Amino acid sequence: MERNSCEAIKNNVLGTKNVADASCTTGVAEFVMISTDKAVNPSSVMGATKRVAEIYTQALNGQEGCVTQFKAVRFGNVLGSAGSVIPTFRRQIAAGGPVTVTHPEMTRYFMTIPEAAQLVLQAAATGAGGQIFLLDMGDSVKIVDLARQMITLSGFRPGEDIDIVFTGVRPGEKLFEELRSEGEDIQPTVHPKVNIWNSRPLTWEFACDAIDTLDALKDSLDRSLIVKTLIDIIPEYEPLNPPEDLKTSESDKNE
Q1: How far apart (Å, rounded) are the C-alpha atoms in residues 14 and 20?
Q2: Which of 55, 164, 211, 237 could serve as a FRET partner for 181 with CA atoms 20 to 30 Å apart?
C-alpha cells in the first residue's frame, strides 16, 4: 500500500464505504470494521486510509434512515495469521537461516487468533455503535527477542547456529505502535480485556468531503498528491517517507 497508495484508497476507504452503505441500505444490524493500531497517529498510507475508514463508519452511525450499528476494532499483530512474522520466522529457521528482522529496537503488540475473534464478537455485542474497541494486549514485544526465542525453541543457538540479520525499517514503518491518539480516553466494557477508546467526534459533512476528495484520486498515480491529501484529512498523519517536495516545504517551514 505504501507503494500503491491509490489501491489503498480503493480497498481501505472506498471498499469500506461500499460495504457500510450497503449495510445501511439492507438494514444490517451490526457492522464491525477491522481496523489496526497503525491507524493511531499513522505513519503509513495503510494506517492513514484505515483511519479515514474509521471516521466514515463512525460518522455514518446514527444517520437518519440507517439502523446499522457501526463499530471498529483496532487489531495489533495477530500471531499465526497470514503474513504475520511467526510463519516467516518458522520458514527461515527451517531453511537454516538467516532470520531477518527490520531493526533491533522494533516492537509490536501481539494478539492470538482466538483473541482477535473474541474482540470482533465482543464489539458486535457491546454498545450502541460509534465506538472503537481495542484488546488489552499487554506490553509490546521486541521483534528481535521473539526471533531469538523461536530460534532457541527450535533447538538452535541464535547467532551461532542461526544468524539474525537486520534488514532496515521499511517505508512507512514505525519502530513502535501506539494504542491511542491525543484526545482519546479509555472506557471499560463488561469484558475485562476489551476497552473502548472514545475518539474525537467528526461530522458527517467532514467524512463525506474526505471520501469525495479521495474518490477523485482513486486512479491517480501521483503518490505525492495522495499523501498530501491524506495529511489534510488526518492531521496526525506524519509519513515516514514523505514525498520529496513535502520534505522541502517542511524544511523551509522549520527554518
Answers
A1: 10
A2: 211
Contact call for residues 16 and 35 (beta carbons, < 8 A): no
Q: Are 2 and 44 in contact (CB under 8 A)?
A: yes
* Rounded CA separation 22/16 (Å): 10
- Please state the rounded mean pLDDT for residues 213-228: 95
**Alpha-carbon dihedral angle through residues 74, 76, 81, 84, given to the nearest 10 degrees:** 140
DSSP conformation letters of 150-179: HHHHTT--BTTTB-EEE--PPTT--SS--S
Active site residues: 38
Q: For residue 203, give the C-alpha cell.
A: 461530522
Reduce the DSSP state of residue 188 to 3 states and report it: strand
Contact criterion met (CB below 8 Å) for 181 and 234? no
Q: Are 36 and 86 spatial neighbours (Cβ–Cβ below 8 Å)?
A: no
The model's pTM is 0.81
Quote the crossing angle between the two packed helices 244-254 and 223-233, to the nearest 10°: 50
Q: Is 235 helix (H, G, I), strand (E, B) or coil?
A: coil
Instruction: Judge residue 153's burial from the number of C-beta atoms within 10 Å of its C-beta, 0-12 exposed, 13-18 middle, 19 or more buried.
Output: exposed
If you average pLDDT over residues 223-252, what whole number do you get?
Answer: 76
pLDDT of residue 244: 57
